[in-house]
Amino acid sequence: MRNTFSLRASFFGMALAAFGALHFAAAPALADNPFAPARKVGDRIITEYDVSQRITFLELLNVGAEDMREEALSRLTEEAMQRAYAQRRDVRLTSEELAEGMAEFASRANLETDAFIAELANGGVDRESFVSFVEAGLLWRKVVGNEYSLSTVVTTTDVQRARDVAAIRGTKRVLISEIFLPADPEFAEPVAQIIGLIENARTIEEFSAIAREYSLAGTRDQGGRLDWLPLTQLPGQISGPLSAASPGEIIGPIELNGAIAFFQLRAEDSTRLIPANQVKLTYKRLLLPGGRSPETLATYAEIQARVQHCNGLDPYAAGLPENYLTETEALMQSIPQSDAVELARLDRFEMSANTVEGGNLVVLMLCARELELEERPSDIQVENGLFNARLGGRAQLKLDELIADTVIVDY
Prior knowledge:
The chain has helices spanning 48-60, 68-88, 95-107, 113-123, 127-148, 156-167, 188-199, 204-214, 236-244, 294-306, 337-344, 379-404, and strands spanning 37-41, 44-47, 173-182, 229-230, 250-256, 259-269, 279-289, 325-331, 351-357, 360-371, 408-410. The chain is α+β, with helices and mostly antiparallel strands. A four-stranded antiparallel beta sheet has the order 4-3-6-5. A four-stranded antiparallel beta sheet has the order 8-7-10-9. It is elongated, with a radius of gyration of 29 Å. 32% of the residues are buried.
């Protein structure tokens, strides 16, 4: 069964990163009249004392903000709205639920509830302010669970896509353009002339103009331009030179099955690098007889229009030799280079056909891209994460709507 939702923005989440570094300091001085109204939210009053208490609480949790008063007022406004909406929906807490919520929060600082409350008091936050904060979060969690949990759905496709995204997150990205030329002997002379043009290209625009005119790749109409690609998705023959290249530099010629490829680095973006031996691909490979003949290209166009998932390729292998349709699951570094280049550009269930092998057009379709780690989250853990994220998004949208529809007066 799916875990109970915990609304990050309104309750425990604001302190997830903070409890490793709790620090306690003296409370700021209060205004002359600490219980004067600071803001009215509907019919609920937020006092200057409430604001002062929340500022101190946020400081103890090491929550940074440019304007701590505005941050405190914003959070108190949300909580006032959460309480009001829960009251309208007749949602209440039992004393046991409140005690459990306080204990859960305190445990994040590795303290029992009473010890945590004592530490807060030493820092200038009274027990009632802490209880009020926890209570508002728990009430909102109940409201959200009651109203949205049954209508929030996560499918197996969503889980797989999340794994695909995880496999390409946090790496060095490159923005490249490509040109694919035929390696067939009968085209040797014109191809040699085109290669001369490519090698003499001095700008990104010149390279793209050559791609539009001569490239065989499906990106021809876009001047060979590809969207951002994680460097780990590219095979070493390409990723190595690109990692050392400067924007504008051209890599190639690189011989692939039935094609000669050139790549130009347009831009790069570096984050943390995921080793290539941790990226696992699953893909299907279909060989269509006839190479780049008009009939074969027409068949490929039909496949592109009709096939939405990897199993959809199977009917097009009818009557062909058994090894003309294969499914491969392997680490990216173990995949044949010509396939790896093509697969690098694909998202799940996308396909390409830019190379030729033995007179056959090579159709590749990516089925999955995952991180192969020693400890991988289970499908149910991924599902719960997606569920909570979607539920949290719906909850925040509802809260924003409630606040927008409420009269708020500052004093």
